[in-house]
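tl;dr need the bound structure. longer version: we got a ligand (4'-deoxy-4'-aminopyridoxal-5'-phosphate) that a collaborator sent over and nobodys looked at where it sits. i said id run it. heres the input, straight from their email, havent touched it
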Amino acid sequence: LNRRLAEFGTTVFAEMSALALRTGSINLGQGFPDTDGPEEVREAAVRALRDGRGNQYPPGPGVPELRTAIAEHQHRRYGLTFDPDTEVLVTAGATEAIAATLLALLEPGDEVVALEPYYDSYAACIAMAGAARVPVTLRPDPEQARFRLDLDELRDAVTDRTRLLLINTPHNPTGTVLTREELTAVAELAVERDLLVVTDEVYEHLVFDGAEHVPLATLPGMRERTVTIGSAGKTFSFTGWKVGWVTASPGLVSAVRSAKQFLTYVSSGPFQYAVAEALALPDTYFDAFRTDMLAKRDLLAAGLTEAGFAVYRPAGTYFITTDIRPLGESDGYAFCRSLPERAGVVAIPNAVFYDHREAGAPFVRFAFCKQKTVLEEATERLRSLT
Ligand code: PMP
Ligand code: GLN
């Protein structure tokens, strides 16, 4: 393994899911739903397979039906207009979108300012591009039960070598939804310092309690300098399909496509047709999905609180970040390693998403994209901790 990747080892998700299997624990670690997405979308995939649509290499940028559906979805939800032919690219999940974007846009030695804690593939992809990450730590605000962005810290992180800002909202793992004010400040900084912005918005449909998902590309000056990343895995509960996308101006999309063509060349065909149908589902689907997840959030948040955790109630995503210090614990990694034996539950230590490990040490993430009975059983088990 080369020096660029050596520090990363095995992803925490693989490690913790293997631990769950080995110990027969309830897996609230890796974020994947335990029920599949809509029947009619599965049927659409079967139809595509059977009708021979996408069984051979589809077009590199993605099948036109899906590119059009992505553009229409952005227009319907946010009033953003993207040309399906030049401003949309289908990728093998958001993971490939992140990799292709960073490999396409970064020069060796460039700096990337990213919010910390960050989704684990960001650091690895920045490293593969030979660039350097400059983390800006989201600060816990126990009073508001939220992690927030310190705009002065963000500003101070930008140097003459900064090439781009890497943003994620709704934010994994903290569940923070950046506010319009916070995002406006990000946008102003990007314009002032002439930076590109890559924004991972895979949880765009999972926002609660009246929080608003504000796509960065909708803010003044941002349409031309923003690469927006989305995924069908999260919105339609098909994480195994690996269908994601990028929307951006033609020059940026063309750059990302240059990298993508040598990573996967094209993305899996039949699923693209099915996701095109999924994106056209009526708003009732998206509303029902969010309402269902909201009930699960409340169930798990109440259970974790009862079990003695301090809960950062997420305004978005399907993750809850907790602070384990009220349980008399301080090392999230050690806690997560011992949790299967102590309570038969698996969670993720947030520290793995930090460069400043000590800042993330007491935080542990639980996923609530699971059936109600599973969440009830998990919280019952966790009550044995105290
Ligand atoms: N970004 C974030 C913030 C995520 O949480 C995930 C997956 N959990 C991804 C990207 C990757 O998405 P995909 O499965 O579509 O590759
Ligand atoms: N994004 C999911 C999570 O944060 C898992 C993705 C993965 O396993 N790489 O849990």
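gonna send this back to them w/ a short note. The domain at 39-279 is CATH 3.40.640.10 (Aspartate Aminotransferase; domain 2).
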